[in-house]
Write a structure and sequence with these properties.
single chain, mainly alpha, two-stranded antiparallel ribbon, globular
Length: 233
């Protein structure tokens, strides 16, 4: 029983290895790219629309609403990044029904890469919204004493994102593998269905946490009105 798809090596030359994590990650990205091209190739701007386009618009509208409810007032700016995170983690879980496939999210290297994407996206969107000076100023609010604590918070939450997703995805795969060896086929089938549900939940949680972190970084502090202005009002 493998604890991680990193242990499955397809090709190796010296210290260069091509393991299952790399193969399935790039294969999953290829599926997402080709699938998005096929789904969006015949979109209509008129009133006559197919049922698939109506369903797609409902899904996208729901994601936009969810992002806005988290605290991001202009969700169109962030749906590309947050939506891609959700689709990748969700697709990695859904593809477990394919024989021989192992989700790349069961590897700490993959979840760490996803967490690093969020780590880079937070200051990127924060600087784009508040400017360099405004974003850096948030690290010393309310006092400069908070600077080391805010820096530690940035690093710790990135680590927490990676470990949380890795632990939840790996534990589900391990439970299914154990049941396959000691029980009939009924229990693994039930656990596989439960694993699919767990994967969707983890994709949702990971995306929402990313949106929350970005919302905190893009929050523009409102200036308090001057006492004279309040008195005149």
């Amino acid at each position: 029983m493998r604890l991680s798809p990193d242990e499955l090596i397809f090709w190796q030359h010296g210290f260069v290895k091509l393991n299952a994590t790399i193969v399935f990650t790039w294969g999953l990205m290829l599926i997402l790219v080709v699938g998005s091209k096929l789904i969006t190739r015949k979109l209509s701007m008129g009133l006559q629309r197919s049922r698939w386009q109506n369903l797609l618009e409902i899904v996208v509208s729901s994601i936009l609403t969810q992002i806005e409810e988290v605290g991001l007032p202009d969700p169109q700016k962030y749906i590309g990044f947050i939506g891609t995170l959700f689709l990748f983690v969700a697709a990695a879980s859904l593809c477990t029904i394919i024989p021989g496939y192992e989700p790349p999210t069961g590897s700490l290297s993959t979840t760490a890469a996803l967490a690093l994407c969020v780590f880079v996206a937070v200051p990127y969107f924060g600087i784009a919204q508040q400017g360099m000076r405004g974003y850096l100023k948030s690290y010393i609010e309310p006092t400069v004493i908070m600077l080391p604590f805010n820096l530690i918070s940035e690093l710790s939450r990135t680590l927490a994102l990676a470990v949380r997703l890795f632990g939840n995805m790996m534990s589900g795969a391990m439970i299914i593998a154990i049941l396959l060896t000691i029980t009939p086929f009924l229990f693994p089938i039930v656990m596989t269905a439960l694993g699919l549900l767990t994967g969707m939940v983890q994709a949702y949680i990971f995306s929402i946490l990313a949106a929350v972190y970005i919302a905190a970084a893009t929050r523009v502090s409102k200036r308090k009105p001057a006492p004279d202005a309040v008195a005149k009002a």
